[in-house]
Write a structure and sequence with these properties.
It comes from Nonomuraea rubra. GO terms for molecular function: kinase activity. This is Signal transduction histidine kinase. Keywords: Coiled coil, Kinase, Membrane, Transferase, Transmembrane, Transmembrane helix, Two-component regulatory system. This protein is about 65% helix and about 10% strand. It is of the alpha+beta class. It has two domains: about 1-170; about 235-365, 2-Layer Sandwich (Heat Shock Protein 90), CATH 3.30.565.10. A hairpin with a 3-residue loop joins strand 6 (about 345-355) and strand 7. Helix 2 (about 35-55) packs antiparallel against helix 3 (about 65-80). The protein is rod-shaped and about 115 Å long.
Length: about 375
């Protein structure tokens, strides 16, 4: 996985730094009985450091054979320590010839196969160091180094596991986002073509009557089913409501509701107020145009603004009638529509032409 890349690079840097540290320790210890053997071990470590760096950089090679060879070479270098030190190097706390370089395969096992593999590799290396130090009388200082190796193997494996899980979640989220974007694109295309054609067939069928009316009814059912299908998406954020679900309840044989394919998210209170204002406008249509009067509800979202339009083909509102109704105490439009939107900072525009119907436009910033 891509997330492993930085870990392998870090292990490569650790190998080089540990190699330099081991060489410095070898140069400082003049009491080794077999210094030539010690420098030979340092040479083997240098060659394997270069080989392992290139091998682990290639993803296909990061398998059990490479890990096994890595651990074997490290153990071989570690187990030469008693022969390099001899009987003279019995100073309490002296480092083995490879020094901290022995931790490299532990880290590699942990990164590749997780906590258990890292812990197993640490136990193997710790056993080898126990044998090495026991030969020169230093077994009493092993416990701290053993604990550190085991902790390194477990913790690094755990960190890599968490990183892989995070990468998988991120990948799934990216795939879901891409799928959602594609779904929204298809929904827009469907909304701009198929849904509009079905709505037109439904409206014209009802106007023509007869067999065409039945065709219009079927088109209306298919429009509703298709709109529901393309509208399915993730749940809205907490505290918000999709206005489309409110407006859909007003759909009927005499009321056509058209909404975008994408959610119209509003705070719950705002969505309820807009829905109530639309309901009040439709009540006015039924009261003044008849229960079977045709009406259309259109919801749109543009530049952060939600616009809901209620249109009918009734006789229209005579000039001055709204003002007269307010003066007479009939506050249906003033309170139920304009009042609700004023409380939310929205606007209401009413355009009516006698004999040509009325259009109520409700605008609210989302």
């Amino acid at each position: 996985m891509a997330i492993e890349g930085p870990f392998w690079r870090a292990i490569a840097v650790f190998r080089v730094a540990s190699l330099v540290y081991a060489a410095v320790l070898m140069a400082q210890h003049r009491g080794y009985e077999q210094p030539l053997l010690g420098w030979l071990v340092i040479g083997v470590m240098a060659l394997w450091t270069a080989a392992a760096t290139f091998a682990y950089a290639a993803g296909p090679l990061r398998r059990w054979p490479l890990l096994a060879v890595d651990l074997t070479v490290t153990m071989a270098c570690l187990l030469t320590t008693p022969y390099v030190q001899g009987d003279q190097q019995v100073t309490l706390g002296s480092m083995p010839v490879p020094a901290t370089w022995i931790a490299a395969p532990v880290l590699a096992w942990a990164v590749r196969h997780g906590r258990r593999a890292g812990t197993v590799a640490a136990a193997v290396v710790a056993a080898g160091e126990l044998w090495s130090r026991a030969r020169v009388g230093e077994a009493s200082v092993l416990i701290n180094e053993t604990v550190l190796l085991l902790m390194a193997g477990w913790l690094v494996g755990h960190m890599v596991r968490l990183a892989k899980q995070a990468e998988e979640r991120l990948q799934r989220a990216a795939e879901m986002e891409a799928a959602q974007r594609e779904r929204e694109r298809l929904a827009r295309d469907i909304h701009d073509s198929v849904l509009q054609v079905l709505a037109l067939v439904q409206r014209r069928g009802r106007e023509l009557g007869g067999e065409a009316a039945e065709l219009g009814r079927l088109a209306g059912e298919q429009e509703a089913a298709l709109r529901e299908l393309v509208s399915v998406g993730p749940p809205p954020p907490l505290g918000t409501i999709d206005l489309r679900s409110h407006l859909a309840r007003y759909g009927s044989p005499s009321v056509t509701v058209s909404t975008p394919a994408t959610p119209l998210l509003l705070p719950a209170e705002a969505a309820a107020s807009v829905s109530a204002a639309v309901g009040a406008a439709l009540d006015n249509v039924r009261a003044h145009c008849g229960h079977d009067a045709r009406a259309w509800v259109l919801a749109e979202f543009l530049d952060g603004t939600v616009t809901v339009t209620v249109r009918d083909e009734g006789p229209g509102i005579p000039e001055g009638r709204l003002e007269q109704a307010a003066a007479d105490g009939r506050m249906g439009v003033a309170r139920s529509i304009r009042g609700r939107m004023a409380e939310l900072g929205g606007q209401v525009s009413i355009v009516s032409v006698p004999g040509q119907g009325t259009e109520v436009e409700i605008t609210l910033t989302a």
